[in-house]
Amino acid sequence: MNAPWKTGSLGNRDPFAAYMCDDGSLDVLRPIAIELGWAPEKCNKGGLRNAVQSLSISASPNILLVDLSESGDPLNDINGLAEVCEPGTVVVAVGQVNDVRLYRDLVASGIHDYLLKPLSPAALRDALAQAQATFAAPKAGDAAASKRHISTAVIGTRGGVGASTVATSLAWLFSSDEKLPTALLDLDLHFGTGALSLDLEPGRGLTDAIDNPSRIDGLFIERAMIRANDNLAILSAEAPINMPILTDGGAFLQLEEEFRQAFEMTVVDLPRNMLVNFPQLLADLNVIVLVAEMTLASARDTIRLLSWLKANASHAKIIVAANKVQPTFSEISKADFEASIERKINLSIPYDVKAASHAAKLGQTFAEANRTSKASAGLRELAQLVVGTSEAGEIDAGAGKRALLSKFDFKTMLTKKSKAPANGKEKAGR
């Protein structure tokens, strides 16, 4: 729906789905769907009730065509659709009631258009084309549509290289030094240290999101994330060791989508096993930071990861950061490391065990607890590399500081709409 649902990119969701009550309408719809490049199998039998049931367990499409013919109270039933419909979905309704009041109330509640049955191929084609244009166009006054956002994944080439330390420090630097609303997502679901390094309890937000991905929306994000400072919120887990996490990764994609709407920066602490199991997580990332150490094993896995990222995430900027660098001791030299990975190391962060211990005792991120150390200077340089990253020169992370969580409470807005009866005398004449 165009409003009150907020608009924005819907990532990899289906471009179209329809739920029609009768075979005649489906016969009119399917050739038009094929003409517009949509899969005809997305034209489903069943009206509004079937749409609500289906979308409660799956992501809604960019454009949704729904039949209200079997609904006794369309305006009230639209509330059920609002509860399961994703932000940004453009909804076109069809029905048999030719009533101006119904049409006006449906449009006021957020329906993009309302068509009368029996469907005319020309009118249906025109309505769906307009819905496509509406979905693609930025909305005037919609801050979320114009908001620029940088999503960064931090991946350690080996266990223990300090990727989590880098991820938490980057998130803190974005939020504190750059004053950018920032989300930190720790995807080490059983052993993550994101909350621990910030002296916070992880809470149940991330496990709840995995168990109930249909609940993920702006309000869920606001309630589930743990606030670290005015500009930094974290979502992490400390799942019991005897509890395997069963998910297809859809919840993580939905979380990334909500972060893009609510924050200016996202930092994902992405363990290698999660990268292997859910490669789709990289689809909308701007920057990938590979944290390496100067060892033979790390060089080998840096080569493997760079090769994989070149094939599967060519859109993202790759930054190779050498961490825990010791000038007097390393398993292999910087020159040999760079020769083996066939590219330069972007920056090096010195090894400082005392600073790491100091941060742990204070319950602060490494960068916060050790602002004057050489290692923190390296982390600030890395943060500047990420902030200065732009995709085709479009990202300007220093422009305008916007609110941390800007959203519409679409359910409240819908319930405030008039529930005028659908059998009034004034005709729509459509």
Automatic annotation (TrEMBL):
UniProt superkingdom: Bacteria
Key word ATP-binding present: yes
Gene3D superfamilies listed in its UniProt record: 3.40.50.2300, P-loop containing nucleotide triphosphate hydrolases
Lineage: Bacteria, Pseudomonadati, Pseudomonadota, Alphaproteobacteria, Sphingomonadales
Protein name: Pilus assembly protein CpaE
Keywords assigned: ATP-binding, Nucleotide-binding
